[in-house]
Design brief:
With about 350 residues, this protein is of the alpha/beta class. It is built from eleven helices and 15 strands. The structure holds erythose-4-phosphate and phosphoenolpyruvate (PEP).
């Protein structure tokens, strides 16, 4: 932390800051410039926060140098992490050496629709499946998901295909039942800042896929990950899924630059959801190619055997030629950026 004194700060003002910092066990290094004095603080940042240094006479600004997140920060953990998802023998890695292709229906609608969608995903090269049993809908009148029945369908499709499953949990009261059926718990964009839910999944004993809130900054997103990590769970994968901007051509704007930025700040893996970002199927393949090129650790994509009948997000679901193009991109491009298939 650095304290920047105002040009008219007196020696007493400087000494007051030094005394306060040393009183809480910190060290203060004073550097006098021609017009300004700056004081570098070394020690426990949380104890410095309690000093309210900004309110002292002669203090112009207080700037933080280290990240406010700790457990998920690369400053404290320089090596990028790999998160393993699935039961022993079926585990899939998500991390810096591989490219992980996850696909499946947006929502679990029936056993047959889910199996068909996941078989399509597997044929396209997906190694993990997705599917929502609890759907966070804008309208309370829209399809909300099959709940526990949907979780049972996901578990039976995993049984049939051997693919680990990621599914969303929207309520802290459902964390235990979702963790019982799924291999990875998803926190959706709408719940990224639901701190009670984050703490609950942090204690569930399963890896977590944490989507970026559609109005969240990167720092807020990493602080949300810190909530999960703080409860003892460092198996967190981040997912960039678009942010809300003024541009109406897509449902959300995929913030592709977030991928390398997050990778420079955090050791956690980061994947991209082009389906929920774009909201339309024609953009899913180009955005997936962009995700691979920018260094994402994987993609998560919606597929549906009959998008016109989908109960949620049909316009963004892939099938047929689009899914074959995605399969080709996911097969051919990752090796060109030094990745092997997960
Ligand atoms: C999808 O998985 C979400 O539930 C969906 O994007 C919600 O959007 P909507 O309820 O506005 O259709
Ligand atoms: C989803 O993946 O099913 C979903 C609801 O995504 P998001 O939270 O990104 O909208």
């Amino acid at each position: 932390m650095v304290v920047v004194m105002t040009p008219d700060a007196t020696d007493e003002d400087v000494q007051r800051v030094v005394d306060k910092v040393t009183a809480v066990g910190g060290e203060a290094f004073v550097s006098k410039g021609l017009t300004r004095t700056i004081i570098g603080l070394v020690g426990d940042i949380d104890s410095f926060h309690g000093l309210n240094l900004r309110t002292l006479p002669g203090v112009g600004d207080v700037q933080r140098i280290s990240d406010p997140f700790k457990l998920v920060s690369r400053q404290h953990h320089p090596e990028r992490s790999t998160v393993w998802v699935g039961a022993p023998g079926q585990q899939v890695p998500i991390g810096p050496d591989t490219f992980t292709f996850i696909a499946g229906p947006c929502a679990v609608e029936s056993a047959q629709q889910t199996l068909e969608a996941v078989e399509m995903a597997r044929a396209a090269g997906a190694v993990m499946m997705r599917g929502g049993a609890y759907k966070p809908r804008t309208s309370p009148y829209a399809f909300q998901g099959l709940g526990v029945k949907g979780l049972e369908i996901l578990a039976s499709v995993r049984e049939a295909t051997g693919m680990p499953v990621v599914t969303e949990v929207v309520d802290a009261r459902d964390v235990a039942v979702v963790a019982e059926h799924a291999d990875m718990l998803q926190i959706g964009t709408r719940n990224m800042a639901n701190f009670g839910l984050l703490q609950a999944v942090g204690q569930a004993g399963k890896p977590v896929l944490l989507k970026r809130g559609m109005t969240a900054t990167i720092e807020e997103w990493l602080m949300a990950a810190e909530y999960i990590a703080q409860r003892g769970n460092l198996d967190v994968v981040l997912c960039e899924r678009g942010i809300r901007t003024f541009e109406p051509a897509t449902r959300n704007t995929l913030d592709i630059s977030a991928v390398p930025i997050v990778q420079s700040k955090s050791h956690l893996p980061v994947i991209v959801d082009p389906s929920h970002a774009a909201g339309v199927k024609d953009l899913v393949v180009p955005l997936s190619r962009a995700a691979i090129a920018v260094g994402a650790d994987g993609v998560i994509v919606d597929v549906h055997p009959h998008p016109e009948e989908a109960l949620c997000d049909g316009p963004q679901a892939l099938l047929g030629a689009d899914l074959r193009s995605l399969a080709q991109a996911v097969r051919q491009l990752p090796p060109t950026v030094g990745r092997v298939d997960a």
